[in-house]
């Protein structure tokens, strides 16, 4: 799931920084190509310093909650995958075919 979110952010022109102790091979490849910045270590609260938004896409529920709490403390836009109650914005599903773009939301 995290890699799809990275792809979406890159398509929108975002500067993407990924923090992960165990990145996927695809993320490692994206970093080696210069598409993203990859920091290979566990998340730290200070990782949000100077950020506009954060996406928590881990399989660790307590870590996702920490990311959400840290984002609230720093007034950072936050999306936690599959946890709408921990988000202050949502990312809809996006389908793009040429110039046609469709977004789909289930209200969270």
UniProtKB/TrEMBL annotation:
GO terms for biological process: siroheme biosynthetic process. Keywords: NAD, Oxidoreductase, Porphyrin biosynthesis. It comes from marine sediment metagenome. The keyword rRNA-binding does not apply. Pathway: Porphyrin-containing compound metabolism; siroheme biosynthesis; sirohydrochlorin from precorrin-2: step 1/1. InterPro entries: Met8-like, NAD(P)-bd_dom_sf, Sirohaem_synthase_N. Its EC number is 1.3.1.76. GO terms for molecular function: ferrochelatase activity; precorrin-2 dehydrogenase activity. This is precorrin-2 dehydrogenase. It is an enzyme of class 1 (oxidoreductase). It catalyses: precorrin-2 + NAD(+) = sirohydrochlorin + NADH + 2 H(+). Pfam families: NAD_binding_7. The keyword DNA damage does not apply.
